[in-house]
Amino acid sequence: MIEECLSDAFQPSELKVKDQSQLHVGHAGAQDGRGHFHVTIVADAFGGKSQLERHRMIYDALGELMNTDIHALRIKAHAPAGHKMASD
Predict the structure, then answer these.
(1) Is residue 16 part of a domain?
(2) Between the CA of residue 32 and those of 18, 58, 72, what are the distances in Å?
(3) Alpha helices per DSSP H over the chain
(4) How far is it, in rounded angstroms, from Cα 23 to Cα 16?
(5) Contact criterion met (CB below 8 Å) for 41 and 12
């Protein structure tokens, strides 16, 4: 669902979503069933935006998932110009 929301909102040239929930088993926030995710996204929409603006755009695109499915979200968001995707 995360990939679908971000793809629809940004038409990224690159997108990786990793579920890292297994690393947080036993964590108080994991007990409610919401997950821990790492998102790496490259999209034109992020050009000229600050890191804070890019993160807010992603939170807005994910909407209700932030309340129902996502407990923690690690974000790497970049515009394509001069960006080389790391192999995380």
Answers:
(1) yes
(2) 19, 22, 12
(3) 2-10, 51-62, 65-68
(4) 18
(5) yes
Give CA 45 to chain center in angstroms.
Answer: 14
Residue range 67-85, pLDDT digits in tens: 988 988 999 999 998 555 5
Number of domains in the chain: 1
Q: Read off the pTM.
A: 0.81
27-35 contacts, C-beta under 8 A, 24 or more apart: 29/71, 29/72, 30/71, 32/71, 34/68, 34/69, 34/70, 34/71, 35/69, 35/70, 35/71, 35/72
pLDDT per position as a tens digit, 20-49:
887 656 655 555 667 889 999 999 999 999
The predicted structure's pLDDT at residue 86: 47
CATH number (domain holding residue 64): 3.30.300.90
Within a domain: 87: no
